[in-house]
Amino acid sequence: MSGHSTYVPKSAVGKWFESRLPIMGLIHSSFVVFPNPRNLNYFWTFGGILAFMLVSQIVTGVVLAMHYTAHADMAFNSVELIMRDVNYGWMLRYLHANGASMFFIAVYVHIFRGLYYGSYKAPREVLWILGVIIFLLMMATAFMGYVLPWGQMSFWGATVITNLFSAIPGVGEVIVSYLWGGYSVSNPTLNRFFSLHYLLPFMIAGVVVLHIWALHVPGSNNPSGIEKKTDKDVLPFHPYFTVKDAFALSCFLMVYVWFAFYIPNFLGHADNYIEANPAVTPAHIVPEWYFLPFYAILRAIPDKLLGVLAMFGSIAIMVVVPWLDTSKVRSGNYRPVFQVFFWLFAINAVILGWLGSKPPEGMYVIASRICTVYYFAYYILVLPLLGLFETPKSLPASIADSVLGKGGSGSAMASGAAASPSTKG
Amino acid sequence: MKSIKTLIAIVALAGLTSGAAFAQSHEREIPPRVTWSFSGPFGTYDETQLQRGFKVFHEVCSNCHSLNKIAFRTLAEKGGPGFTKEQVTALAATYKVKDGPNDAGDMFERPARPADFWPAPFPNKQAAAAANGGAAPPDFSVIAKARTYERGFPWFVFDIFTQYQEQGVDYIASLLPGYEEPPAGVTVPDGKYYNKYFPGNVISMPPPLQDGAVTYLKGPDGKPQAPETVQQYAKDVAAFLMWAAEPHMEQRKEIAFRVLVFLLVFAGLLYFTKKKIWANVEGHA
Questions:
Q1: Which of 202-221 (B) contact A at CB < 8 A?
Q2: pLDDT in tens, A164-197
Q3: Into how many domains does chain B fold?
Q4: Which domain holds residue B139?
Q5: A325 φ, ψ to 5°?
Q6: Is B52 part of a structural domain of the chain?
Q7: Is B267 inside any structural domain?
Q8: How far apart are CA A296 and CA A370, in angstroms?
Q9: Is B35 exposed, middle or buried (0-12, 13-18, 19+ CB in 10 A)?
């Protein structure tokens, strides 16, 4: 991880150790003196928040696993024992269950931040793709975690989602029976989901290390979207960004606490307090809120295989975003037309989420189809074409200039100053 | 085996598509809001209400409904109905539980102890269903969290801020007195009943409560603590079931407040620290 290697151990022991394993120097150059663009706004604090959430989920999860029983006949009861008889077990479980939701709130802010400011563009394509992989792993982890309490929604959610794989021609049936470990969602399914739910977070942690590594090669993108050039453009990570991240994290934790302690079941589903029963199908099978936009895309398409392809495609397409976006300007701040399409995309995603919670009938299906079309059109049509036709605002000469309001048509200046397209960035 | 998988897929798909249509084809009334002592950020259970609710459960509901996950001892734990240990021991002793095997290898019955879980009224689900017209009465341990009604947009957004999360208890408090003659044109099958709050309106449970069916403790003025009416019984037993589903709610809300105050102060200090550190950077406040 790049940065100035100015670390000099003070003690003899420190020198002895550093010459054998220069890990303190690595930490020092990555998280102490690392030069960050000085103009980062609060959307850039969500990386740190996500790192905190991952650790928090692993800590609460490891302790919960000490008390949980992964067996179809005992899982539901063991969760209730955690809630009632384990010391502060209710706290662990509510923190863990709501922590998943908070993790996704943070990751969605983080992703939309990247989409708006063009953080996926060269030279940060690998960084972005690693992020998409983390997102996929998070979704798999969260899905399997929701199955573990073995309530009605656990069971039927697992049934619906695992059945999707049967749509794959040829190998679909085999994949489904491997997921199930039998001929339906049953005890073997619960056991392997528990095993994988414990494994995947550590894989996420591994990819997070790569993600941070890939981040520290070019350094963070920033609201102006132009690269750092001189020392005037940057500030050391510590104390400037450690204190800023800490403040943002405290604010985020207040939201987390509000949900986990005051309305712990708001984001859950009442049906999951009914023990799984293969003989009784709930009236509505609805996934957790963070899957709803993708669920809406799945159901918008009448053909099962195409629906499954569209759902997975809606995530897979993010991998090629760096090459779909043809604009030479990174930051949405300097792309007035892009801004309109971007915010439409964001609103579209929220509407898709709402539609995912509605029954697939009548107007809801039609609306889901329109929203699905826009979702893909944004990636396939808007991003490639906009770069060719849009006239961006002129960019400031440097990050320092963008902060100090010199030159360019940054946010401090009046908008509408459609200067000639910049060749920078 | 393929047919089983197909069947599951069809059932799942049918659940997805028909559930909503089913819900919409029947009129289901929205339960009115009840003022609960335990709602809001500082809510606590009303001990006397929980004791009354327990009496209703004990004398009426527990004849058919189990309470599998609640141990007798929890009735004397903090943040609950506040019975004394002696009361709980005496109550437990009125129940018989199966134990064993003993040294001779035989199972035997003994009086329940506070550490035992509440014994179910029926030995198994099939027996419960057979004795109740084919519909097994659901377990009551978490029923206050397992029942709800849809709030809809935008109300569910407001609920985040108002902390309204008593949909389940509101529903129970409405359901129990919610029996009516079916409206014209609606036929209710034999052995079923019409209830305006039940999803689909046709419920297997006969009206469980009647005015005066449960005698409440008398207050100092010689009158019952609360009216001995179906409405009051329903509210009291709903409150008891909320406690049964969330026995640590009081502790949870207490801790929530302390954690929030801490975070508020901590975030405030960090904010000013941040301002101080950034003060020497040109272009930043």
A1: none
A2: 999 999 999 999 999 999 999 999 999 999 999 9
A3: 2
A4: 29-70+118-247
A5: -80, 115
A6: yes
A7: yes
A8: 11
A9: exposed
